[in-house]
Amino acid sequence: MIPRPVSEPPGIASSGKLQNKVAIITGGDSGIGRAVAYLFAREGADIAIVYLNEHEDASETQERVRQLGRSCLTIAGDISDEQFCREVVAYTLSRFGRVDILINNAAELIYEEDIATLASEKLLRIFQTNVFACFYFIKAVLPYLKPGSAIINTSSIAADTGYPAMASYSASKGAVSALTRSLAVSLADRGIRVNAVAPGRTWTPLIPASLPPEFYMFYGSYHNPGPIKKAAQPYEIAPIYLYLASEESRYVIGQTIHVNGGEYLG
Question: What is any one GO biological process for this UniProt entry (predicted)?
Answer without folding.
Answer: bile acid metabolic process
